[in-house]
Amino acid sequence: MKKVLILFAHPRFEKSRTNMALLRGLEDQDFITIHDLYEQYPDFNIDVAREQALLLEHQILVWHSPFFLYGAPAMLKQWTDLVLEHGWAHGEGGQQLEGKLIFNAVTTGGTRASYAHDGFNRYTIAELLRPWEQVAALCGMIWLPPFVVQGTYRLTDAMLADYAEQYRQVLLSLAKSTPLEAVLEYAFLNDWIADPTPQEQA
After folding, report:
1. CA neighbor of 164 nearest in space, from 12, 3, 11, 32
2. What is the rounded CA–CA span in Å between residue 201 and residue 192?
3. 105-125: pLDDT as tens digits
4. How many angstroms separate the most distant Cα atoms in the chain?
5. Under the phi-then-psi rule, with left for phi > 0, alpha for psi from -120 to 50, and beta for the rest, what region is 67?
6. Which of 2, 31, 76, 128 has its CA 20 to 30 A from that of 121?
7. What's the confidence (pLDDT) of residue 201?
8. Phi, psi of 193, deg, nearest 5
């Protein structure tokens, strides 16, 4: 089974019902490492060598964060700028991450309908995640659709529990070497794991 590294960044994690629910559902999974970047580096002084070693130990990487003003919190950008070094993650001699799976797990206050060309936010989640997709391509990683929880202010405890189970099932299925062709057909990993047809065919 592949090992999963969740690179989690939330500056106000203690106030996030949604992210608490998502991560709580993963605590008993020994193939998953939850790496809380704000907890590890409150001074933003990231240990690059340590982070690179963690990346090498895992085959599936997740950039997990809230979607603040159409982007990730500052810590995740800082991590990307420092850890994914030229000559290590990309550029001449930089093939250390080649072939690893990677995707974003994001939470948004806005609903799915609001992230559309005719919606309040004018762009889709996929379009707003383009810079992260390009980072993955630059480093030779395999980019997957995001896992997205939206309309977070309206979610009941039961709905949060359902999303947490979906997240756990997504990671478990990917770790078991699920064929990626079917996964890539979906806009969100949520849609893929909720569709019974490909699961039955697997």
Report:
1. 32
2. 13
3. 999 999 999 999 999 999 999
4. 49
5. beta
6. 76
7. 46
8. -75, -25
Rounded CA-CA distance 130/170 in Å is: 21
The answer to whether residues 201 and 179 touch, using CB atoms and an 8 Å cutoff, is no
User: How do residues 188-199 score in pLDDT, each as one tens digit?
Assistant: 999 999 987 655
Identify the weakest region by mean pLDDT among 12-16, 40-44, 143-147, 181-185.
12-16
Assessment of whether the complete model's pTM goes beyond 0.90: yes
Domains of the chain (ranges; CATH) run 4-201 (3.40.50.360)
- 34 closest CA partner among 54, 14, 53, 56: 54
Closest CA to 191 of 130, 138, 150: 150
Locus of tokens 């939850």? 34
Contact 59, 101 (CB under 8 A): yes
Q: Which residues are within 8 A (CB) of 85 and not within 5 positions of it... i.e. 6 or more apart?
A: 48, 52, 94
Question: How far is Cα 71 from Cα 67, in angstroms, rounded to an integer?
Answer: 5
Dig out the tokens for 146 from the structure: 């995001």
Which residue is associated with the tokens 């993955």?
A: 136
148 CB-near residues (< 8 Å, 6+ apart): 105, 106, 107, 108, 112, 125, 188, 190
Structure token digits, residue 2: 């592949």
